[in-house]
Specification:
The complex is a heterodimer of chains A (100) and B (644).
Chain A (H helix, E strand, L loop, with lengths): L3 H21 L3 H26 L3 H31 L13
Chain B lengths: L7 H15 L8 H22 L6 E14 L5 E10 L1 H24 L6 H20 L3 H19 L19 H36 L4 H10 L4 H19 L7 H4 L5 H10 L4 H8 L1 H4 L3 H22 L5 H21 L3 H28 L17 H15 L5 H16 L1 H26 L14 H16 L14 H7 L11 H28 L9 H4 L4 H46 L6 H27 L1
Antiparallel strand pairs in B: 1-2
The chains are: A mainly alpha (100), B mainly alpha (644).
């Protein structure tokens, strides 16, 4: 049986990769994909701990996260499409209209 | 017999107002004028049918509960104040005057205002005025009367300032320039009227408060009952009556709140005839007559009413002596005649005062409308020095004006003779000083009206326009009013002239009649003196006219500037107010400067924080990461620390 620590390590690596993606990528789509990666890293950690503790709460939480992620994808993609139609770009550095 | 409900009287003109103001597009051309006149005629016809249904006891018609708990029962438990109308001899008379004379003036306006750009709106405002005035006179409680009171004030404001950007003519007539200066002066006249009326309104309200405190009701019939039954504080009643007098003084242009009325002539002439001569300004007289049960018990306040009236009559007459504006002469004359009415009601000769109100409505509306016809014919010329000899150009208007002049001068058989004589007799009976003033004013009245007549109608024409007779829509109302002004006096022929006091008897069912105790021989003497005053006044004017010195009337500039009352107000009230306002302005600017500098300096440090808001999503992501890391780090340290 694979030890829990390995799962957690995988989760950590995926989370870090996602975070780097969010911080370095300039295209809204890629940032979006990276955010999904981070969410699924959290999901792996939740499932791993659920198995380690023999408590199904973590698994339940995963389902909630998945549903929310699906909703988020729908809305997020819609926003990105809308922005693209308006501005003809998805480069987030060009979308700096909220500068104070 | 079918009784038409009273609420239709004010409702019909209100409906006309709503239609004309909301959907003027539906009433192109002169349709608005005919609609406006039609609703007033309908009200008049209803008033006539209801007149024949008058009973000795007043008829009350309650509509709905208006102010809950705004009234107290006799035992102090709360009751509701309702909207209700009263139909008695006094309100019937007022209603007939308002709708009857009002209708004639509406018809006249159809032609008079026909070139005006705001034609339909004019009739909307006139209808609104008629509606509010009817609420005022029909109201069965002071608060409802106050609603009408404010309504007519608003209508007056709107109509005085009707030409707030100069006259609304298309500018076809010659010698007729649309100037901003004229518009500003008109707007100022409107504001002046409104503000001076506010002072009076405050008095009216204080009067209501005091009455409510003393008697626990503002319903007029209830109040009349309680004044007779309840023990009350005499000084409080006197004070309440004095406050009501302040209200009446404001609305009727009496001293000391008189100066708005002559300025109100800035409005179109039909407005001057309807509002500032025949109806609205008599609201003060109506208020005192309606509140007769209070004034009967308040001798001091009544004396004040009489003296205010007497002094105003004198003031108005002196100011009218040397005016040059054809309407200003009539305006000061209105002030003076209203003074007569106040004098009469103050002396508890309500029938005499209200009778003069009736005849004055006829002859003053007539004179104003005739003046309007002259102004119209001379292309908006109002200076009597530019007139003269108009009887050749406008024979009909000349004859009706002559009727008006004879009526106001108190020449026998014309209506003013009977009404003025009744007031003078009442004054002689109770207060000789007021009688002397009244007689002097009668002389001055005849003189300034004679001056008006000779300057406008006699001699050679001095102006440059091409006068023409008015059209039938204008002459017909003039003719009817002239007939009323001539024959109206026969409604109340006194006993010693073989009459039956018909009007006194009629009104005494609503307002008590003071018994006359003058010997017949004295009455003949008083009448002879009154006639003499009128005749001498007219002869004096005629003599001055023959000598060619009529243009400059007696008293010179003092009279032209209305005994400097406006100047005094300017110096005593306006100038100090302006100084105080200037000082406050400086203080205000100082405070503003302080606050603004604090605000400006607070913005600078705030500017530093705006750098944070770079607008770059990834910069925000970094801050989020750092923030999350900081929180997790904090908790991790805390857990480790706790574990140690």
């Amino acid at each position: 049986m694979v030890p829990t620590a390995s799962y957690i390590a995988l989760s950590g690596i995926l989370f870090a990769l996602g975070m780097i993606g969010v911080l370095t990528r300039r295209t809204a789509i890629m940032i979006f994909l990276s955010v999904e990666l981070m969410l699924n890293a959290a999901n792996i950690a939740l499932v791993a701990f659920a198995r380690a503790w023999g408590d199904p709460t973590g698994q339940t939480a995963v389902f909630i996260v998945m549903t929310l992620a699906a909703a988020e994808v729908a809305i997020g993609l819609a926003i990105i499409v809308a922005i693209f139609r308006k501005r003809e770009t998805t480069n987030v550095d060009d979308l700096a209209g909220m500068k104070g | 017999m079918l009784r038409v409900p009273l609420y239709l009287l004010p409702l019909l003109p209100l409906l006309g107002f709503a239609l004309l103001i909301c959907v003027p597009r539906f009433f192109p051309g002169k349709v608005g004028g005919y609609l406006g006149s039609g609703v007033v005629l309908a009200s008049f016809l209803i008033a006539v049918t209801r007149y024949f249904g008058l009973t000795d006891a007043p008829q009350h018609e309650t509509l709905w509960t208006w102010l809950p708990n705004m009234s107290l029962n006799g035992d102090g438990t709360p009751a509701n104040l309702s909207v209700g109308f009263t139909w008695d001899q006094l309100s019937a008379l007022m209603t007939l005057i308002i709708t009857g004379v009002g209708f004639l003036i509406h018809v006249y306006s159809i032609s008079y205002m026909s070139h005006d750009a705001k034609y339909t709106r004019f009739f909307a405002f006139l209808n609104f005025f008629v509606s509010m005035m009817l609420i005022l006179v029909l109201a069965d409680s002071y608060p409802l009367m106050f609603v009408g009171w404010e309504g007519v004030g608003t209508a007056s404001f709107l109509l005085i300032g009707f030409w707030f950007s100069g006259r609304g003519d298309a500018g076809t007539a010659e010698g007729f320039t649309v100037t901003n200066a004229e518009g500003i002066s008109n707007s100022n006249a409107a504001r002046k009227a409104f503000i001076m009326n506010r002072i009076g309104d405050l008095g009216f309200m204080f009067g209501m408060f005091l009455l409510f405190k003393s008697f626990g009701t503002l319903n007029i019939p209830q109040l009349a009952e309680r004044v007779g039954a309840v023990k009350f504080n005499q000084p409080t009643l006197e004070l309440a009556c004095l406050f009501l007098l302040v209200g009446a003084v404001g609305k009727s242009g009496q001293l000391p709140l008189t100066t708005w009325l002559p300025d109100a002539m800035a409005g179109p002439t039909p407005v001057s005839a309807l509002i500032h001569a025949a109806t609205m300004v008599t609201a003060g007289v109506y208020l005192v007559a309606r509140s007769h049960f209070l004034y009967d018990l308040a001798p001091t306040a009544s004396l004040w009413v009489a003296w205010v009236g007497g002094l105003t009559a004198l003031y108005g007459a002196l100011s009218a002596l040397n005016q040059y504006d054809i309407k200003k002469i009539l305006a000061y004359s209105t002030v003076s005649q209203l003074g007569y009415m106040f004098m009469a009601v103050g002396l508890h000769a309500y029938a005499a005062g209200v009778f003069h109100l009736l005849t004055h409505a006829f002859f003053k509306a007539l004179l104003f409308l005739a003046a309007g016809a002259v102004i119209h014919a001379l292309h908006e010329e109002q200076d009597v020095r530019q007139m003269g000899g108009l009887r050749r150009f406008m024979p009909f208007t000349h004859i009706v004006s002559l009727m008006g002049v004879l009526a106001i001068s108190g020449i026998p058989i014309w209506s003013g003779f009977f009404s003025k004589d009744a007031i003078l007799a009442a004054a002689y009976e109770t207060n000789p000083w007021l009688y002397v003033i009244g007689l002097g004013v009668a002389l001055l009245t005849a003189f300034y009206m004679g001056r008006w007549y000779f300057l406008v109608w006699r001699g050679e024409y001095r102006g440059h326009a091409h006068p023409h007779e008015a059209d039938p829509l204008m002459t017909a109302p003039l003719g009817i009013l002239a007939a009323l002004a001539t024959l109206g006096g026969f409604l109340n022929v006194p006993a010693f002239l073989g009459g039956g006091h018909a009007f006194d008897t009629y009104l005494s069912r609503a307002v008590p009649l003071e018994p006359h105790e003058i010997a017949t021989s004295t009455e003949w003497l008083l009448t002879a003196l009154a006639i003499a005053a009128g005749v001498i006044g007219l002869l004096w004017a005629s003599a001055e006219y023959r000598r060619g010195s009529l243009t400059d009337g007696p008293l010179g500039a003092a009279s032209t500037r209305a005994l400097y009352l406006d100047t005094v107000y300017d110096n005593v009230i306006s100038a100090p107010s302006r100084t105080i306002a200037g000082a406050l302005d400086i203080a205000d600017r100082g405070t503003d400067g302080l606050i603004n500098s604090i605000a400006g300096n607070s913005a600078a440090p705030g500017g530093l924080f705006t750098l944070w808001q770079s607008g770059f999503v990834r910069a925000y992501a970094v801050s989020m990461l750092l923030g999350t890391a900081a929180i997790i780090g904090y908790w991790a340290l805390k857990v480790i620390g706790g574990g140690l």
